[in-house]
Amino acid sequence: MSALSSLAQLQAVAAGVAQPLATVRHCHLPDAPLVLVPLKLAGEAAAPLAVLVGSAPDDPTLLVVPQPRNRDLRFAFAADLAKLVLNHIETSRGAVEELPPGKEGDERIRYGDAPQVLVPNRGGVAFLRLMGRSTRFRSTEGPYAVDPAVPVLGRWLTWFADRYDHPGSSLLLAMTETLRLHWATGQSSLEDGNLAALMGWIDPPDGMDGPAAAARAEDPVVCPPAGPTTDPTFDNEVLAPAIAAFDRAGRGSRAEERLRDVLAGQLTPTWDLMWRAVGLLRALPEGASVPRRWERDRDAFTYYHQTFGEAYPQARRDPPVRAARRLHDLERAQDAYDAQRAFDDPLVMAEHRLDGQAFGGTVAECDPARLDETGKRPKLRPLLRVGTRDPVRLDAGTTVCNAARPALKGRIVEIGDGSVLLELTGGMGRKLTPEPGAVPQVGDRVCFTSLTEGSFGAAKFPDREDTPWTHGGPPGEYVPTDEDAEEEWS
């Protein structure tokens, strides 16, 4: 936890309401995201109990597994959920955009939009990940055949869960994590995992402060858990008798209707909280770099959708080369995401200033026309002296960039008492005189940081056929087997 986040938490305790950690929204929110609130049976890894799903606050669809231990009912539930999720995916593509040819001259396209799934918390993400793994290998033929949409759903859920791991992606969002990125409460991070308590701090009801609203949210009768787990008292006193009554009465009975009403009562409060949270996030202006990250999400969605019919389901474990490449991609994405958030948001940049990885101040001296003539040809190398009170923990020679214009780069020449001397090296044009407005003038407020969107480039990895012997050698061709399908839903 940073010093700024700790200070915001203390201020939240003193004020009785959550404090902002951001001035802009750092995620994309489409007009009609797919909100999905799941519940699972206690004590079972992936036994779905119910889900409330929909793309409008006043139009939810409730799906229920009246007996979660019944395999046929579970897969019938998965088939119904698949129709809703796959319909959302297909209707979220938008118009097709034609892109310039790639390096090899290949034609490229990108869908104009992409689907977004919102779940209440990390537990919801884990549930979708496990549900995807448990359904994507299922056979659509034979004695235990499932609806053809079930394995398709599993592959898409696995893909969404993989994109959740990608820093900056907005295709699958856990609402508690997204809210915590923008607000600090006066409670612990564990308590922030409760969506009702978190919303109590951020948007308390009239006449209540954050602590009182959060305490009220801990009452499972008033605010049932936001899934996928349920309250033990509810399980023992309400759910278990309702399922037993269904076992005696069967499908189409009043006992089934009673069970649906009971589960709807558990899910509806969280459904309402999700849309309240969406409204709070939409009230924040979108960060400048969010559209670029959404473009990458659309690229990923377009590629997976276009190649869906040509590939096998995702393997249970990545082969060595793919695992190494994925780890490298995640590290690069995290590096770029941290820099983009800081460039977009002065509150985020303030954390890096406190850490000494950035400094802000006023230009005290400026030589905008200075030339470096030590080489064969002169180069434009203006000097800036920035007066600052920030704790600078960067060394001389470190490359930095301007937070307002990341293309304006420089090198630290010396760090004095209350000032930093910079030599600007790029982002000023190609001539020996800087473009108008490219070089800050005396008296301008500036902020420079060592953060860059691409601090290291893409690495080269061997083809899977050239996997070294130290990592098991070339893997055989992957073909899904029955063993892959032996998961918690078996």
TrEMBL record:
Q: Which parts of this chain are annotated as the region Disordered? A: 457-490
**Which residue windows does the record flag with biased composition (Acidic residues)?**
480-490
Spell out the protein name for this chain: Uncharacterized protein
